[in-house]
Structure formats: structure tokens, C-alpha cells
Design goal:
Layout: H1 4-23, H2 28-43, H3 48-59, H4 69-76, H5 82-95, H6 99-104, H7 107-134, H8 142-154, H9 158-161, H10 164-175
Length: 180
């Protein structure tokens, strides 16, 4: 499910830790730190591969604490970072029907997550539309603007919200931004 570079990085990390674990002695604290290092990707993402990973661990009775980004979204009403929101947007329509999701969340919570995803998308659209209308990016919104541009691109939403000329205008605004 990963691009070749990501797949290679995950495999190399596994090889690295397998070699070290077989040749060195580690304290319990060090082992927990290693586990956290290995699990960072799986704890900080939402998606098909993430759900499959945690399902496979559970199926094999491998017990690790999951820091679930969907729980964070439910508690805070937003995603922790733009990349998490993008992953949710891309894969939610598929993973919301996974047993692993239905086992962890009530139908009401699943609907709330869907609403958080929709709200995130609409908010990002509104930020870009406002900048386009005013033909400027406010200094205080520059980073958010960049996140919104990445969100629209990575989620394939340009055609849903903007004409081709508007997209070009947004990129021109971004290129011509001058920091004070």
C-alpha cells in the first residue's frame, strides 16, 4: 500500500532493529523507546495500511498501546496536523466500514469523525477562497495557506472547488507572497 521509498524505509528500519535486537542487550526502558520508534508511523497516521497493521497485531496477540489519531480528532473536533487530516480524507470512506473501526467507535462517533473530515475540508476551501477573493495571503495565514494548498492537491479536490484559472491564481498568489 506504500510507495516504493516508504516501503523500503519501513523494511530497512525492521532489518536495522532486528539486527540490533539479536546482537545487543537492552533495558526495559530502552525496549519501550525502541517500540515507540518503530510504532511512530502507525501511531501518527490514519489510513487503510494503519488499520491493517493494528488489526494484524491484534490478530497475532501482539499487544501494544495505540495512540489513535481518530480518538484525538473526536476529543478535539479537529486533526492534530494537516497530514493526518489528508490521510483521513483520502481513506475514511473505505476504513469507516472496517471491523477495526466499528469495534472501536460507535455509529455516532463514526458519524462525528465524518463530520470532522467534512468540516476540515470546508474550512480549508474557505481559507483559499477568501485569499483568492482578496487577492492576497495575510501574513498570519501564510503557513495555513500552504497547508490548504497541500490538502487540496493531495486529496484531489481542486476540480471540486476551483476552476483551472483559479488554481493558477492561487499558485501565483503563493509564489508572489512577500514576508514582512
Amino acid at each position: 500500500m506504500f510507495d516504493p521509498k516508504t516501503k523500503e524505509a519501513i523494511i530497512n528500519q525492521g532489518i536495522y532493529w532486528n539486527e540490533r535486537l539479536n546482537s545487543e542487550q537492552f533495558t526495559l526502558t530502552q525496549m519501550k523507546s525502541i517500540a515507540n520508534d518503530i510504532l511512530t508511523l502507525w501511531n501518527e497516521t490514519i489510513g487503510i495500511a494503519t488499520e491493517m497493521f493494528w488489526t494484524e497485531l491484534k490478530k497475532n496477540n501482539i499487544d501494544f498501546e495505540r495512540k489513535d489519531e481518530l480518538n484525538f480528532a473526536l476529543k478535539k473536533g479537529r486533526f492534530r496536523r494537516v497530514d493526518v487530516g489528508m490521510s483521513a480524507k483520502k481513506d475514511w470512506s473505505i476504513i469507516k466500514d472496517f471491523d477495526s473501526i466499528k469495534d472501536r467507535f460507535s455509529q455516532d462517533e463514526i458519524e462525528k469523525i465524518s463530520n470532522i473530515i467534512d468540516c476540515d475540508e470546508k474550512t480549508r476551501f474557505e481559507i483559499l477562497k477568501k485569499c483568492l477573493r482578496k487577492k492576497e495571503i495575510p501574513q498570519t495565514k501564510y503557513l495555513k495557506f500552504g497547508e490548504c494548498m497541500a490538502y487540496m492537491s493531495n486529496c484531489g479536490l481542486w476540480e471540486k472547488y476551483f476552476a483551472k484559472a483559479e488554481v493558477e491564481d492561487l499558485y501565483d498568489l503563493w509564489k508572489s507572497f512577500k514576508s514582512n
